[in-house]
Amino acid sequence: MNSREISNFQQLIKLHPLLKDEQRDRITIMISGKKFIVQNRQLKVFPETLLGNEDKRRIFYDNKLHVYRFNRHPSIFESILYYYLNPGILIRPPHIEPEIFYDELRFWNIDESLIETFIEEDMIPLDNIRFLPVQKWRRIIWKTLMYPESIHFPYSELVIGICILTTLLSSIPFIGEIIPTVTELNKLQNILNVEQIFFPLYIRSFYIIEILSITIFSIELNLRIISAPNFSLIIYDIINFLDLIIILSSSICLISYHLHNIRYINNFLSFYYWLLILKSFRIYRLARYMLHLRLLYKTIAICLNEICALIISVIFCMLLFGTLIYIIDNSEPESNTRNILDGFWLAFITLTTLGYGDIYPRSFEARIAAGLCALIGIIIFSMPTTIIFIKYTKLIQNKWKQNRNIRYLISS
Fold first, then answer.
1. Cβ atoms 13, 6 nearer than 8 A
2. Residue-wise pLDDT tens for the chain (412 aa)?
3. By the 8 A CB rule, do 263 and 196 touch?
């Protein structure tokens, strides 16, 4: 035995007590038949957790096999173990559903603040708690108007069907108004052989539908306000404001129809067009009764950061390529980019891959720049679109979980 081997052997003898202590510190954990061996001191880094607290985990100890037995998900436990070995680092396995993963974290008593932070980044938030008023009659009205899917079948389908039908029928007079006033005003005057047309234009049947629609919308909004458990639920619901705008704009149109004192069409026409825009909001009432439409609006609200990043990227590329194309193409005698604004417009329709054809590059260099602009536009729009699609898909998939975990609380 040479001197180096003797030296190594002596060091092993010195380390023997340490190795013995480390062997004694080991514990064996069995997760659904799969064994894991870990040092107890590593678990004690987080004493508030199930594994880090000896008193908590003692009830799972098997005296015969001298192991801790847990009938839990083995793949998720690997992430839990990684959390102990690399303190504070928590990674969800990609093949594990978020709901299952977070249920496991709560079983192992992982820090709740860490779980909440993880949920905000990884999961789509769900409205699981719904408040109800104290009085029974208000509770029935509130659930019928706000959560019709919660009442018993077939009444839920009946309520939703009536609301959707009312909204669709209320759109018929709007279509009857907007077609002649916007597109065929002069032709209509010639056909009727009149110098003056009173606004708004209502066929008798449309007039009756409009009156009924405004009446139903007003009653529904008032019932919603009366039965609300908390007035803040009315204020923070944007659809209530849409209902108010619809009622006011439609009422003004009906009042003007009865007055018939509009002597000059042009004076009233510009204001009347704005009323038509406000009246068009009534189609958005469908979002209250159509789940997938509500989820789409919610997805857009969740993805506001991505949408803002998309808008900023489009503006930046539009300024860059618009200026570049204008400078390159302006030297051509047949160029139709007359000013820098035309260059911006060309860059914008190229980025969005619309290509109206009203403005297009003439020179070879400008066409190369436009082609590069189109490629960058495809990349810019594909990334946030994919993110929005994924989050919308997650919302659709989590629909069953939302229905399962909904809780109704009576607000005092």
1. no
2. 556 665 665 565 555 554 455 566 788 889 888 888 888 888 888 888 888 888 888 888 888 888 899 988 888 888 888 888 887 777 888 788 777 888 888 888 888 777 666 655 555 555 567 778 888 888 888 888 888 777 776 677 787 788 888 888 888 877 766 665 444 555 555 555 555 555 555 566 777 888 888 888 899 889 888 988 888 888 888 888 888 888 888 888 777 766 654 444 445 556 666 777 787 788 888 877 777 787 888 888 888 888 999 999 999 999 999 999 888 887 777 777 888 888 899 899 999 888 787 888 888 888 899 899 999 999 999 888 888 888 888 777 776 655 555 666 776 5
3. yes
**Domain ranges, ordered by start, for the chain:** 17-122, 137-289, 302-410
What architecture (CATH level 2) is domain 17-122?
A: 2-Layer Sandwich (3.30)
- Helix (H, G, I), strand (E, B), or coil: what is residue 26? strand
Please give the angle made by the CA atoms of 91, 95 and 96, to the nearest 5 degrees.
65
The CATH T-level fold of domain 302-410 is Helix Hairpins (1.10.287)
- Same CATH topology for 17-122 and 302-410: the answer is no
| DSSP sequence for 50-78 | TTT-HHHHGGGEETTTTEEEE-S-HHHHH
Give me the residues paired with residue 408 across strands: 130
CA distance 13 to 166: 89
